[in-house]
């Protein structure tokens, strides 16, 4: 399928590693021009060694002034923005609500939700100038199911779906589509850290937690980053021109966490 993304201008947060980098590479393969930001300075520096044209800026999305600079610089370089992917987020504490430090809880909201607000608000004037612009919010499985001992993370991911659906209504008249992607357990270092956190709380071994993670999942395997990237490219393409306000899971049909 020809996605016709050649020349599309993409801003992507947390794009120097993991799912973010996978998405950045996928868009570049489709001919798009991609600029990313990431809070990991070493990962951003490593992008300069790559030959695929992905360039990055160190930016904590919870810092409004840093976001303003990132968006302004990227727009000046690209000449505008057609696609925004809000991928930045942190997992936060793994503990029951009565044992979570308020500052740790607040930090998750600052990055996952307020950070998405900052980036989207700064990018909107430029997206409105693009014919057929698209915004993608990276929510999670925890954005459609309760997630014991991960209250801040789950609350922020549910909020992103509400934000996506609301913006789809607000921006539809401007021709801007807004959707959310909800990955389940994605193969990689981050998922291993999640399983380790669960093991610490439950007292089970890491292997037992890995097996438990598949218990309520119809397709008994972790999601591959490339699968998430493929969906993002499709949603940003003209083939999804009538898809907006949707929350699309990529989780192997998980029924509970």
UniProtKB/TrEMBL annotation:
Task: Print the keywords alphabetically.
Answer: Oxidoreductase
Q: Which InterPro entries match?
A: NAD(P)-bd_dom_sf (IPR036291), Sc_DH/Rdtase_CS (IPR020904), SDR_fam (IPR002347)
One example GO MF annotation: oxidoreductase activity
Q: Which Gene3D superfamilies match?
A: NAD(P)-binding Rossmann-like Domain
Family, as annotated: Belongs to the short-chain dehydrogenases/reductases (SDR) family.
**What is the protein name given in its UniProt record?**
3-ketoacyl-ACP reductase
């Amino acid at each position: 399928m020809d996605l016709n993304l050649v020349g599309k201008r993409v801003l992507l947060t947390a794009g120097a590693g993991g799912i973010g980098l996978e998405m950045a590479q996928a868009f570049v393969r489709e001919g798009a021009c991609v600029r990313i930001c990431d809070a990991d300075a070493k990962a951003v520096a490593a992008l300069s060694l790559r030959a695929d044209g992905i360039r990055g800026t160190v930016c904590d999305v919870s810092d409004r002034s840093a976001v303003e600079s990132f968006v302004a610089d990227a727009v000046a370089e690209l000449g505008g923005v057609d696609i925004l992917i809000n991928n930045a987020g942190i997992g936060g504490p793994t503990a029951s609500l009565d044992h979570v430090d308020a500052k740790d809880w607040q930090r998750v909201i600052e990055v996952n939700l307020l950070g998405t607000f900052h980036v989207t608000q700064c990018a909107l004037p430029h997206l409105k100038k693009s014919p057929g612009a698209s915004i993608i919010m990276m929510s999670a499985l925890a954005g459609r199911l309760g997630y014991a001992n991960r209250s801040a993370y789950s609350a922020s991911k549910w909020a992103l779906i509400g934000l996506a659906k609301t913006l789809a209504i607000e921006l539809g008249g401007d021709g801007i589509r807004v959707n959310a992607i909800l990955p389940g357990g994605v193969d990689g270092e981050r998922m291993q850290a999640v399983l380790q956190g669960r093991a610490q709380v439950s007292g089970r071994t890491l292997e037992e937690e890995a097996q438990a993670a598949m218990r309520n999942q119809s397709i008994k395997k972790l999601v591959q980053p490339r699968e998430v990237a493929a969906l993002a490219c499709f949603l940003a393409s003209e083939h999804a021109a009538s898809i907006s306000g949707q929350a699309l899971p990529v989780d192997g049909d998980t029924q509970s966490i």
